[in-house]
Amino acid sequence: MIRSFRRCGNAPGTLTPEDQAALDTFRANLAAIAAVRDPEPWTPGQGQDIAVRVGPFIERAHPRPGDDHGTEAIAVALVHPDTGHAAAYLHGHQLGYNRKGWLRCEIPAILGTWQPAYAPLTHAAANQPLPDDVGMDPAHYGVHVEAHRADGTSYTLLRLGPYFQTWVAAHDADQLNTELAGQAATVIPGATVTVKDALFDTSDHDSYTDPYLTDIAALLADAVEGATA
C-alpha cells in the first residue's frame, strides 16, 4: 500500500526548518555509511588524519609525526572531528578529547584516511564524552642517547622507555647529562654524545630498554663501551 503524507499548515513541497534538519541528518548518515563501506586507504608518512574505531564509534585521530610507520601499531592523538575550527577545541575539551594524550593505536583499528563524512559517527556528534577506556594504551615518552660525528652524521647509542610521565624522562635525561658533564665531546673519539628526553617511538619499541628498576648510568656506560670496543 502506498500512502500519501501531507504537512499540516505548509504548502506542498515546502520544508520546515525541522524537516530540513531531519533531511540533512539523514543525508549525513547515508554519507557516513557509504564512507564506512568504502574507506579511503591511508598511507603512513603523509601527515593525514585517520579514522579509527573506538567501540561502536569512529573517531578522528592525528598520527604523531615520524611515529606512524609501525607494522603493528602507531602513535595517535584522538581529536574532535571539527578540529581546525575555533569552537572545536572547547567542545573537544569538554568531551575529553584533549585529555587522552598520545595513544598506541593498533593497525587493525584504523579504518582509513579521515573523511568529514565520518563526523556523524563520533562521540562528539552524539554529544557523549570519550570513555575512560578507548581501547588504546598510552604512547609515552623516552630518553635518547645519540653520538654526533663531525661530518654531521649521527647514530643512537641507547634508548630508554617507555616513561609514563614526561618529568621522569626529563629527570633521567638530566642524570645522564650529569654523568657526561665535561666529557660529552671526548667519551667517544670523534663524536659528541647528547642525551635528550623525547616522545616514545611506538613504531620502534623493540629498540628501547626499560629504564625502571635499572641503573641507567650503568646502561650508558655499557652503551659507550660497546661503541668504543
Topology (elements, then pairings):
Layout: H1 17-37, E1 50-54, E2 57-63, E3 73-79, H2 86-94, E4 103-106, E5 110-113, E6 137-138, E7 141-149, E8 154-163, H3 166-180, E9 191-199, H4 216-228
Antiparallel strand pairs: 1-2, 1-5, 2-3, 3-4, 4-6, 7-8, 7-9
Structural class: alpha+beta
Spans where pLDDT lies below 50 across 5 or more residues: 1-11
Identify the overall geometry. elongated
Which radius of gyration do the C-alpha atoms yield? Answer: 25 Å
Q: Reading side by side through the largest sheet, how are the strands ordered?
A: 5-1-2-3-4-6
Element pattern in H and E = HEEEHEEEEEHEH
Total of DSSP H or I helical runs spanning 4+ residues: 4
Helix content: 25-40%
Largest sheet: 6 strands, antiparallel
Mean pLDDT: 84
How many E-type strands?
9
How much β-strand is present in the residues? 15-25%
Termini Cα gap = 88 Å
Short description:
This protein is an alpha+beta fold and 229 residues long. It has helices spanning 17-37, 86-94, 166-180, 216-228; strands at residues 50-54, 57-63, 73-79, 103-106, 110-113, 137-138, 141-149, 154-163, 191-199. It has four helices and nine strands, in the order αβββαβββββαβα.
